[in-house]
Design brief:
The chain is an alpha/beta fold and 259 residues long. It has one domain: Ribonuclease Z/Hydroxyacylglutathione hydrolase-like (Metallo-beta-lactamase, Chain A), CATH 3.60.15.10. Helix content is 19%, strand content 27%. The strands form two sheets. Strands 6-5-4-3-2-1-14 form a seven-stranded mixed β-sheet. Strands 7-8-9-10-11-12-13 form a seven-stranded mixed β-sheet. The two termini are 17 Å apart.
Amino acid sequence: MRVICLGTGTSFGVPMVACDCAVCTSTDPRNKRNRCSVLVEMPEGNLLIDAPPELRLACLAHAVRRVDAVALTHTHADHIMGMDDIRRFNVLNGAEMPIYAEETFCDDVRRVFRYVFTAGQEGGGRPKFRLINIHPGREFSLLGAAVTPLRILHGELAITAFRIGSFAYVTDVSHIPPRTLEGLRGLDVLILGAIRDEPHATHFSIPQAIDVVKDLSPRRAFFTHLTHDVDHAELSGRLPPGMLPAFDGQVIDIIESTN
């Protein structure tokens, strides 16, 4: 299994509009961050987790030619506003796109993308979604792998993390319940949201994320959802061993446990 980071930035993206800070004007390509998303290359196809506004551009930049299913962590704008771009994969696949999300998030998709589900729009260039409800803690089979949705909190909003084999994706998180922590042990790779050094009401700070990684002890951890306050090289130089900031276009090979 392999993971491609399509976006590793906060909801503003980096560079941020009308900002001349050192990170926003940096020439280091690792400081240019789309909104958060990953593509997971699984045994029988590719799973896209979240569909941010730059989805089309990210797919072009990182040569994504196949998406077989989509999973949503939640429905804030920076995680779903690229869903219309899924229609290109409808054409390539010749089929509806299965969208896996918790029931309330499926309801949000129906509301925000009402035209997708409105009769009379056939042939109008709309994507085709097949919404599938998922439930935290209830494993399901997808594309030749077992996927487990896990409950996390984004401020007071209950949202979804995903574990797939020895990989877990946990973004937009400010609290991980004890049961979920137990479900995140024994990982090869953890991608974890860590917005900046300073505390935040709805996201882990970098020091908080470091503490979580020390507790869970994955073989490798990568921090995502980074703001323009974070310089990639500077953060890389001070993180503990086994922890790194993620960057757009990063490819991470997952080593499955033999235990």
